[in-house]
Design goal:
- The chain has 546 residues and is mainly α.
- The protein is 48% helix and 6% strand.
- The chain has 20 helices and twelve strands.
- A hairpin with a 2-residue loop joins strand 11 and strand 12.
- InterPro entries: 6-hairpin_glycosidase_sf, 6hp_glycosidase-like_sf, Glyco_hydro_37, Glyco_hydro_37_CS.
């Protein structure tokens, strides 16, 4: 029992009284909703019309909210209204195709290819541990992808932002690729790790500068740099990006410039919409965080699909809550997974806002530690001390709410009623299904520095059945969702491997290297590949197996 348990037990009666008084309060359930824009509303109508006209299994709704307008919205809307329609209100495919060609650019046209000035074909000191010639040649091909994925926002977006859903950004960007034609928040961390391995420090700093500009304008880093992402964020890893750049370059000016934005982002993640209070088994009160998008409508980039799923609900309030949980799953980066479903694999039981996620709180713990470190760098000792205290409180909260001593994992916690202001912890509310996220806290220093804990977690990971022939699986449930078995995503591989490495345990390092060697385009995948090769290298005598 913790040292202050006698105090916590004394407080339990007061806390339970508080629950009785406040549980029915509606203020805690009053959820913010980011207003839409006229442009987005029109593009969603266009998306619906295109689906009716073109349909097909390869229809991508995102395309129709990414297209830039050639003319003012009022002119485009007027032409749209004048399109000939069939008796059922649909537009013929040929008529719509001509309209699209006349009034819109292609999705992605408002980004311009850019060769980064700090890109060289083979950087000095690039991956010195990679000795195998074929692996080194392949690593250089991955390195060269940065040249293909780097863009800048076109001058047209800066001049006429009202014609674009793409948001203006001050610096160059690295996009994930494929249909993702914009910057994404948490992807950027692993892109930056790869850029650092490629000695492209200026490009890495430009990405951070862009994300800071979003905080300055919106109060948080958006899910991505599109107008339809202003209702949610993504896993908060900006402070980790800045830490990695500073650790490599010693850029104190970057730290000074970043700290006010990081404090603002921290306020966002600890505001009422994300903050949850838990009363634990010892009577101690803890504050943790959840994902909670500021949205209760179909996501503009996926309206057709969202509405189809929501048709299973009869009431407006049920639909609105489902839409919020959909957008909140997107905020988590795990879109989608049985992790967020009350009755998996039934997609309509998605309830993301009812989950207190292990990994989100690990990320916020990392943010607290990084802010403390940065404050120390710039001489602000008061802020440094305050955030070290915050980190210590969060670590204790995670130990109390998430840690399961039997499984030797940290488990997500399900809320019974999101409207309660104080939630009483119950053992049965931990999600005992195995996900890779159950091991993410090991990425953070307060956990990987605990030798005894690391030994327990390594044993648990080895016996979890997550470690497979090609790396760590996301879950053990084959649901057909992206963030479930058998998929193994780059960020999860990297966080687990790096946490194991930092522990200093030889057994943990052996497991880390085994995972890295097993796991084998996409922006963040490129970054993780380069980071792994930088850490472990590839001896000339090691076989290459597929």
């Amino acid at each position: 029992m913790p040292e202050n348990s006698h105090i916590c037990t004394w407080l339990i009666h007061l806390s339970l009284t508080l629950i009785t008084v406040t549980a029915t309060s509606s203020s805690h359930c009053s959820m913010a909703v980011t207003p839409s824009t006229s442009l987005l509303s029109f593009l969603q109508r266009l998306q619906k019309t295109a689906f009716e006209a073109f349909g097909g299994t390869d229809f991508d709704p995102k395309t129709y909210v990414d297209v830039p307008l050639k003319f003012p919205l009022s002119v485009t809307q007027d032409a749209f209204q004048k399109l000939p329609r069939n008796a059922n209100g649909t537009v013929a495919a040929e008529d719509l195709k001509r309209f699209l060609e006349a009034y819109f650019g292609a999705a992605g046209d408002d980004l311009v290819h850019l060769t980064p000035h700090d890109f060289v074909r083979e950087p000095e000191g690039f991956l010195p541990k990679v000795k195998h010639p074929r692996v080194r040649a392949w690593a250089l091909q991955v390195h060269w992808l940065w040249k293909n994925l780097t863009r800048k926002v076109s001058d047209a977006v800066q001049a006429h932002p009202d014609l674009h859903t793409l948001l203006p950004l001050p610096g160059s960007v690295v996009i994930p690729g494929s249909r993702f034609r914009e910057v994404y928040y948490w992807d950027s961390y692993w892109v930056i790790r790869g850029l650092i391995a490629s000695k492209m420090h200026d490009t890495a700093t430009a990405i951070v500068t862009n994300l800071i500009s979003l905080i300055e304008q919106y109060g948080f880093v958006l899910n991505g740099a599109r107008a339809y992402y202003t209702n949610r964020s993504q896993p908060p890893l900006l402070s980790a990006m800045i830490y990695e750049i500073y650790r490599t370059t010693g850029d104190v000016e970057l730290v000074k410039r970043s700290l006010p934005a990081l404090l603002k982002e921290y306020e966002f993640w600890n505001s009422d919409i994300h903050k949850v209070t838990i009363l634990d088994a010892q009577g101690c009160t803890h504050t943790l965080n959840r994902y909670n998008a500021m949205w209760d409508k179909p996501r503009p980039e996926s309206s057709i699909k969202d509405q189809e799923f929501a048709s299973n609900f009869s009431s407006v309030s049920e639909k609105q809550q489902f839409y919020r949980d959909l957008a909140s799953a997107a905020e988590s980066g795990w879109d989608f997974s049985t992790r967020w479903m009350r009755n998996p694999p039934n997609f309509t039981t998605l309830a993301t806002t009812s989950v207190i996620p292990v990994d989100l709180n690990a990320f916020v713990l990392g943010m607290e530690l990084n802010i403390a470190f940065f404050a120390k760098v710039v001489g602000d000792n008061g802020t440094a001390e305050r955030f070290l205290e915050n980190a210590d409180l969060r670590k204790k909260a995670m130990d109390s709410v998430f840690w399961n001593a039997n499984m030797k994992q940290w488990l997500d916690y399900w809320l019974e009623n999101t409207c309660e202001e104080v939630h009483v912890w119950k053992n049965g509310r931990q999600n005992k299904n195995v996900f890779a996220s159950n091991f993410v806290p090991l990425w953070m220093r307060p956990f990987y520095s605990d030798t005894s804990l690391v030994a327990s977690v390594v044993e648990s990971l080895k016996t979890s059945d997550l470690v497979r022939a090609a790396g760590v699986a996301t879950s053990l449930t084959d649901s057909g969702q992206q963030w479930d078995f058998p998929n193994g995503w780059a960020p999860l591989q990297h966080m687990l491997v790096e946490g194991l490495l930092k522990s200093g345990s030889q057994e943990a390092r052996s497991l880390a290297e085994e995972i890295a060697i097993r796991w084998t385009g996409f922006g963040w995948s490129n970054g993780v590949v380069l980071a792994f090769l930088e850490e472990f290298g590839w001896p000339e005598d090691r076989n290459i197996e597929c």
